[in-house]
Amino acid sequence: MVGATPPSAPPPLAATGSGPDLRVGPRPERPLPQFQGASALPVGVPEADATALDGVAVLLLGVGAAPAGGPAAADAPAVVLGPGSAGVESATGLDLAAACAAAEWRAPAGSVLPVPGAVLPGGARLVLLGAGKGTARDLRRAGAALARASRGSELVATTAVAGLEPALVGAFAEGVLLGAWAPPRTGTSEGPPAAVAHVRLLGWTGRPTVPLPGDAPGPAWSTADVASALTAATTAATATWRVRDLAATPSSTKTPAWVAEQAVALCAGTPGLSVTVLDEEDLAERRAGGLLAVGAASQHPPCLVRVDWTPRTPSTTRRAVLVGKGITYDTGGLALKPRESMVAMKTDMAGAAVVLAAVVAAAEADLPRPVTALLPLAENSLGAASYRPGDVVRVLGGTTVEVDNPDAEGRLVLADALALADAELDPDLVVDVATLTGAATLGLGRQHAALYTADDDLAGRLSAAGEETGERVWRMPLVEEYRAGLDSDVADLRHVPSSPSPGAGSVTAALFLREFTGGRRWAHLDIAGVGRADAASHEVPKGATGWGARLLLRLLRDLP
Predict the structure, then answer these.
(1) Is the model's pLDDT at 17 over the cut of 60?
(2) Rounded CA gap, 493 and 270, in Å?
(3) What is the pTM for the complete model shown?
(4) Which of 240, 249, 224 is CA-nearest to residue 179?
(5) Which H or E run includes 417?
(6) CB neighbours of residue 383 within 10 Å
(7) Residue 532 known to be catalytic
C-alpha cells in the first residue's frame, strides 16, 4: 500500500571518523580465533614436519564414526581414525582405536575424548575430536567442540580438516568461531577463560579427497580456495557474534538510542554503508503510529534505524530489504507478563540485531546487490501513557489497527517498517525477522524457525540456505480462512484475531504482517523458538543464539 508522499528523510548520519564506541562483536580486546594453515601432518610419518607442533598446547586429532552397515564383528573398530593418527600412534606407542573402545566412545560429532598419558613433542596434550560422519553439520559441531576444549590456550592444532574440500573446512572453521563466543561481561569477577587465540589446521594441502571430474589434472581446489572459505566463515561468524552481543546486552544499557548508536559504530569506516535514524519527531511526521504507540510509556523514546548497503559495482538495481523487530525490552505493557516470562525479554530485539548484522556482513563480503535493513526500535513499557486494548492506531501509510493485546506489540512496529519499505524503497524482496509468537515455539520447538511466504522460489532458497548454515526453517501455511479473524468493526484491521479465535497464533500474525507488504515478494521468519536457548548445544550457546544472520547472508549471496 502506498500512502501520501513521504516527508524528506533526515540526512544519513556520518559513519566515519569519531562516533559512538563499538560495544558489540569481535574487537581488538575480544578477538576471534585466528587460523594458520600447515601442509604437514603431525609427528611420526614421512610427510610430518618437526615444527608442526611447535608451541601447540593441544593436538585435536580428528576421528570419524564408523559408517553404518560396516563390519559386524565384535572386534570391529567403532571409529575411523583420521589423517595423522598413524604418526601419533607411532610417536606415543598408543593404540587409539583401543582407547576409543575402552571408553566406549564412537566419535559422535561435537564430542571429545582426552587421551591421558600421551607424550607429544613439545608437551602438547592429545585430545580426540569427534567428527561424526564428516558432513558440514558434523564438522561445524566438531569445530565448536574444539573451541570449548581449548579455551585459555594460545595455540592448538588439529587434523580434523586435513585434505578436506573448502566448503567443509569453512564449516569446521565456522564452528570454531561460533563456539568461541562468550557473552559480554561487566563487574570485578573473572569470566570464563578467553577463546583460543590461534588454531593451526594441519594437512592443509589442497589435495582432493574426492574423485576429479573426467581427466581433469591437478587438485580439485587450491589452498587459495580454502583461504577464501575461511574468510567467508569469519564474515558469517562475525555477524553471529554481533547478533549475540546485541541480544545479550542488558536492557538497562540497550535502549533504542543505544542500538542506533551501535548501528552507526558498526558501519563506521565501511564504504557503501550509510545509516539514517528517524527519531520520535520524524516518526510522528510520517504518522508511524505503531512504533509511537508501543514506545509511548517508556522514558526511552522509539526510533527507526535504516542501514543501506550500496555496492560499488552493483550487479542489479533490485533491492533486498530486511526488517527486524526491535523491542529492546518487553514488559507486555498493560497485558503485563509474569516475572518468569520477562526474564528473557532483553532478547526481544533479536530480529533487529539479525538484519543489522546481515547488512553489515553483506557490505564486508562486498555483495553486488543493494540491501537495506530497517530496525523499528521501542521499549514496550507499563505506564500512564501505555496503549490500551480497544485503542485504534494509525500506522505508516494510513491503515488503522484496532488493538486487542498490548503484549502483541511486535507486529505493530513491524507494520510501520514494512509499510515504509513498500512506500519508500520499492524493494524487489522483503524478509522480516522477529521473535514474534510463542505459538511458533509450541509448534516447532527450538530447532526450526517458522517460515511464511507465498513465493515457492523464495521458500526453496531460504530452506536451502538454512540447511547449508545449520539455521533451519520449516515452511508454514498462510491459511486464508483465518484472515477473516483480523477484520475489525471500528478499523481496517485487528492486530490479533477476534473471539472466537481460530488459534494458530503464528499463522495469524503472519497474515497480519502480509497486509503491509504491498503485495511484494515477501517472507516472514518467526524466530521466537530459535532466537534464544535454555541450554548450550554444540555451536549454539545458552541465551542469545544469534540465529538468522548467517541464513540471511547466505540467501543474499545466492540470489540471482
Answers:
(1) no
(2) 41
(3) 0.93
(4) 240
(5) helix 410-420
(6) 12
(7) no
**The predicted structure's pLDDT at residue 90:** 87
Compute the distance between CA of residue 208 and CA of residue 227 in angstroms, rounded to an integer: 15
**Residue for cell digits 587459495?**
224
**Which pLDDT score is estimated for 6?**
47
| Annotated catalytic residue, options 23, 207, 337, 520 | 337
Strand 392-394 vs strand 400-402: parallel, antiparallel, or unpaired? Answer: antiparallel
Q: Under a CB-based contact definition with an 8 Å cutoff, are residues 439 and 410 in contact?
A: no
Which domains does the chain possess? Answer: 34-213+220-235 (3.40.220.10), 249-386+407-483+509-558 (3.40.630.10)
Candidates 411, 461, 532, 554; catalytic one: 411
Sequence-distant (≥ 6) Cβ neighbours of residue 255 within 8 angstroms: 300, 328, 379
CA distance 122 to 200: 15
Question: Comparing 175-189, 207-221, 449-463, 481-495, which segment has the lowest mean pLDDT?
Answer: 207-221
Tell me the pLDDT band of 96, cut-offs 50, 70 and 90: very high
pLDDT band for 209, please (50, 70, 90 cuts): very low
Q: Tell me if residue 151 is catalytic.
A: no
Radius of gyration of the chain, Cα coordinates, nearest whole angstrom: 25
Cell, residue 503: 488459534
Q: Where are the alpha helices (DSSP H) in 438-487?
A: 438-444, 456-469
Q: Using 50, 70 and 90 to split pLDDT, how confident is the model at 276?
A: very high
CA dihedral 271, 520, 546, 260 (to 10 degrees): 50
Q: How far apart are CA 206 and CA 489, in angstroms?
A: 67
**pLDDT of 411-431, one tens digit each?**
999 999 999 999 999 999 999
Cβ distance 274 to 359 under 8 Å?
Answer: no
Q: What is the pLDDT of residues 505-524, one digit of tens each?
A: 999 999 999 999 999 999 99
Helices (DSSP H) in 185-322: which residue ranges? 223-248, 256-267, 280-286, 289-294
Residue 109, CA distances (Å) to 18, 79, 102, 144, 198 in order: 45, 12, 19, 10, 22
Instruction: Give the CA-trace dihedral at 418, 419, 421, 427, to 10 degrees.
Output: 90
